[in-house]
Amino acid sequence: MVDREKRWRGSDQLDQRGRPPRSLMVALVLACLTLVTLDYHGGPDSPMEPARRVVGEALGPVETGTATLVRPFTSVPAWFRSRQSLQGELADLEAENSRLRSEAATASFDRNRLAEYEGLTAAAGTLGYALVPARVVALGPSQSFSRTVTIDAGSAAGVRPDMTVINNDGLVGRILRVTRTTATVLLILDPDSVVGSRLGESMELGFLQGRGVLGRQGRLDLELVDGSVIPARNDTVVTWGSQGGAPYVSGIPVGRVTSVFRSLRETTQRAVIAPYVDFGSLDLVGVIVPSGTLSDRAVIEADGTLQ
Amino acid sequence: MTGLRAAVAALAVVVALILQVSLFPHLAWQGIVPNLCLLVVVGAALTRGAQFAAVLGFVAGLALDLAPPADHVAGRWALALVIVGYVAGRVRQETRPTATAVIATVAATSFIGTSVFALSGMLLRDPVLPVTEMLQVIVVAVAFDVLLTPFVLPPVMTMFQRLEPVRTA
Predict the structure, then answer these.
(1) Nearest in space to A188 (alpha carbons), one of A263, A248, A230
(2) Residue range B118-131: mean pLDDT, rounded
(3) What is the pLDDT of residues A221-246, one digit of tens each?
(4) ipTM score here?
(5) Nearest residue of chain A to residue B165 (CA atoms)
(6) What percent of chain A has pLDDT over 70?
(7) Are A271 and A259 contacting, i.e. CB atoms less than 8 angstroms apart?
(8) Chain A window 47-106: which residues touch B at a Cβ cutoff of 8 Å?
(9) A164-166 and A129-139 as β-strands: parallel, antiparallel, unpaired?
(10) Residue A8 domain flag
């Protein structure tokens, strides 16, 4: 045994050390292919789901802890913004402010009417939904060619698969799977994500699909059901909603139309949507849960109260 | 010793994985982060040979496939990193490899690993993406891995070298 150890260091045995046994390589590759086959054909109830859950239960808290440690440092670059960029920002905001003020002044009638409707929807809202706040603790790499993140709220916080995830700006994605303390969110940018949505102005229905992995901001493709409708630029896109609010509740703003094109092969109109959410700096999000859900943290009800 | 070695290797993979998903996204370029798990596997291959690295590659790949934010078909990273471990192990030399050799190995294996992952995705249509975009991701990923090599590989290789069974015992 000692001899063999010694001889392995010698150059004559280099090849033996460099080349692993063929049986081992075959076994490893076959194991990988078996996993792929099992998971690919299993679909949502594949035999790999329990394994994912076990790994998630183990690593989820570690990810949460690491993200908590890292968070104070990620805000450092924001301190070093130059005076000029701050001034530019101020000018932009002032311009936007005055534009909004004039809009608000001219639209008092609309506003009154809207207030009535809003009262109705708020009433409906209090019957339905509440928000569980959560933070993003891990992001999947682009090398995996998918856009998913982990948030630090899991089944203990009342989060279940197929719930809608939003933030201040709009729709973020939906819950794919949960562990006790974490949940995996499929972002709407993921090429596998399809969101039923509606144009704000014409109420036309369509399907929003993620465009791929590159870009901090990201883009979405909107395909309208009715091919004759041409979406207006800067028109808002909101979710259409599905039965029982799963996976997406209705009326969540998603983004605005940036450009429209008609593909020759297909008969439908396609529009490119810029999402309202900045996916590059995603942090605080909310999961929409049924009102009155039991949770390990404060739940924000539709009327703004904490529970 | 073997148990300890396995435990340390597994710990290195877990640390790499956690840093990769929780810390490096803040430094990422368009969501592309350095593939630390791949660097650990290459480090193991350059010090301990292809056999150990292929097994470690399987473990690391499985962790990448199953740990929370992942949503692709399981087994794809495992396959990619087994191949990475094998290829990197074959270029291993008796003497400690030079810096250039290490960087070349990282670049080559990073390209192979990410490409194998992308190709398996194309075969399984999971998800459907334009090839140009995939190539762009692969090129940036290789650049990132090479950039991180001077910081990650020396400690990893020293660690695996220390764990080598004592030859005179």
Answers:
(1) A248
(2) 81
(3) 888 877 777 777 888 888 887 766 67
(4) 0.82
(5) A5
(6) 75
(7) yes
(8) 48, 51-52, 55-56, 59-60, 62-63, 66-67, 70, 74
(9) unpaired
(10) no
3-state SS assignment for residue A76? helix
Q: From CA A221, how far away is CA B41, in angstroms rounded?
A: 38
What residue type is A152 in one-letter code? D
| Contact in structure between B76 and A36 (CB atoms under 8 Å) | yes
Total Cβ atoms within 10 A of residue B130: 11
Number of domains observed in the structure of chain A: 1
Q: Which residues of B touch A24 (CB under 8 A)?
A: 51, 54-55
Tell me which residue in A140, A144, A212 faces B133 most closely, judged by beta carbons. Answer: A212
Q: Give the CATH number, domain containing residue A160.
A: 2.40.10.340
Q: Shortest Cα distance from B166 to chain A (angstroms)? A: 9
Nearest chain A Cα to B20, which residue?
A141
Q: Which two tokens stand for residue A69?
A: 């440690």
- Tell me if A4 is assigned to some domain: no
Q: Do A25 and B26 touch (CB under 8 A)?
A: no
Cα separation, B29 vs B32, in Å, equals: 5
**Is the bond into B154 cis (omega within 30 degrees of 0)?**
no
DSSP state for residue B21 in the 8-state scheme: I
Burial class (CB in 10 A: 0-12, 13-18, 19+), A294: exposed
The two three-digit tokens of residue A261, written as one number: 């094109």
Establish if A157 belongs to a structural domain.
yes
Look up residue A56 and give its two tokens.
């998630």
On chain A, the residues whose CB falls within 8 A of the CB of B120 are 36
CB A290 within 8 A of CB A200: no
Distance of alpha carbon A15 from alpha carbon A9, whole angstroms: 11
Q: Whole domain around residue A208: which residue ranges?
A: 113-289
pLDDT tops 80 at residue A307: no
Q: What is the pLDDT of residues A111-157, one digit of tens each?
A: 655 665 565 555 445 446 788 888 888 888 888 888 889 998 888 88
Please identify which residue in the block is written with the tokens 């990475």. Answer: B84
Q: Determine the 3-state secondary structure of B93 from DSSP.
A: coil
* Parallel, antiparallel or unpaired: strands A194-199 and A205-210: antiparallel
Residues in chain B: 169
Contacts of A46 in chain B (CB under 8 A): 74
* A159: closest CA of chain B, how far (Å): 15
Q: Which residues of A touch B167 (CB under 8 A)?
A: 5-6, 9
Domain assignment present for residue A190? The answer is yes
